[in-house]
């Protein structure tokens, strides 16, 4: 099986470009295993779209073999792969996902994605390692809980956590963030770490960064603005206007190979 590996701010993916491959939860988990497989936070399979608004469908699977509605870093990597294989005309491409069609815009090493508007679902709470955290529940097509803390570096994200299963019946991505006052206006900068649903802690989460940006602006009493979100794997820029949320960041293809299962 041929594959391509890529990442967006350290959030890494196995890309499969063969529609004849029948993915299963077990196969995806084996491919993403960092010791016995290729290694990755998820699998991106390139499929033709069945709808009229896009030519390609991003079939995204989490590393544990579960499906996800959307992946912000993944769709940038997916777009970079389409560009590298000559499937992009001009400086943008529409991509179908389980959360609808998203448009990727190319600007050098940066790719900007129209992620759709953030939906604020109120406040909720989570328990991590026996400690309670309150935060904002936000949907970016997939569920997020954004909790503010004083120091993200001190958190043990390998500890077990629990959440409101009535509000999040299909699980939740749990983001912890802190204002970075060293970089300027506190509402404009956040440091973030994340536990991704189906993958555990990752170096970055694009939809999570969007949720953090939306939460930061809401905390400042703002409806629009730009927030820089620093994750362990780099920096993402979130811009919220009157109609949508834009996610901007790098996407890199790192190597190709073949795996025998």
From TrEMBL:
Molecular-function annotations in GO: diaminopimelate epimerase activity
Site (Could be important to modulate the pK values of the two catalytic cysteine residues): 144, 196
Reactions this protein catalyses: (2S,6S)-2,6-diaminopimelate = meso-2,6-diaminopimelate
Pathway: Amino-acid biosynthesis; L-lysine biosynthesis via DAP pathway; DL-2,6-diaminopimelate from LL-2,6-diaminopimelate: step 1/1
Enzyme class: isomerase
Compartments, as annotated in UniProt: Cytoplasm
BP GO annotations: lysine biosynthetic process via diaminopimelate
Amino acids binding substrate: 11, 62, 72-73, 142, 173, 196-197, 206-207
InterPro entries hit by this protein: DAP_epimerase_AS, DAP_epimerase_DapF
Location, primary (coarse class): cytoplasm
Stored SUPFAM superfamilies: Diaminopimelate epimerase-like
Active-site positions on this chain: 71, 205
EC number, as in UniProt: 5.1.1.7
Task of the protein: Catalyzes the stereoinversion of LL-2,6-diaminopimelate (L,L-DAP) to meso-diaminopimelate (meso-DAP), a precursor of L-lysine and an essential component of the bacterial peptidoglycan.
Family, as annotated: Belongs to the diaminopimelate epimerase family.
Protein name in UniProt: Diaminopimelate epimerase
Source organism per UniProt: Allocatelliglobosispora scoriae
Upper classification of the organism: Bacteria, Bacillati, Actinomycetota, Actinomycetes, Micromonosporales
């Amino acid at each position: 099986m041929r594959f391509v590996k890529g990442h967006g701010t350290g959030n890494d993916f196995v890309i499969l470009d063969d529609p004849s491959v029948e993915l299963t939860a077990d196969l995806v988990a084996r491919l993403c295993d960092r010791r016995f497989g290729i290694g990755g936070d998820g699998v991106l399979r390139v499929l033709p779209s069945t709808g009229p608004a896009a030519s390609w469908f991003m079939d995204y699977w989490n590393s544990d073999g579960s499906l996800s509605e959307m992946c912000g870093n993944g769709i940038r990597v997916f777009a970079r792969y389409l560009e590298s294989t000559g499937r992009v005309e001009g400086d943008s491409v529409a991509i179908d996902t389980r959360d609808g069609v998203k448009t990727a815009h190319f600007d050098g090493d940066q790719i900007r994605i129209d992620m759709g508007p953030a939906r604020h679902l109120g406040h909720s709470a989570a328990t991590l390692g026996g400690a309670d955290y309150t935060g904002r529940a936000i949907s970016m097509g997939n569920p997020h809980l954004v909790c503010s803390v004083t120091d993200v570096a001190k958190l043990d994200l390998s500890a077990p956590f629990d959440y409101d299963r009535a509000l999040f019946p299909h699980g939740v991505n749990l983001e912890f963030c802190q204002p970075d006052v060293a970089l300027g206006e506190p509402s404009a900068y956040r440091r973030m770490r994340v536990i991704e649903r189906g993958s555990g802690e990752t170096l970055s989460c694009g939809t999570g960064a969007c949720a953090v940006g939306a939460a930061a602006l809401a905390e400042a009493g703002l409806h629009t603005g730009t927030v820089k979100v620093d994750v362990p794997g780099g920096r993402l820029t979130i811009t919220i206007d009157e109609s949508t949320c834009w996610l901007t960041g790098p996407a890199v293809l790192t190597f190709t190979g073949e795996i025998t299962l």
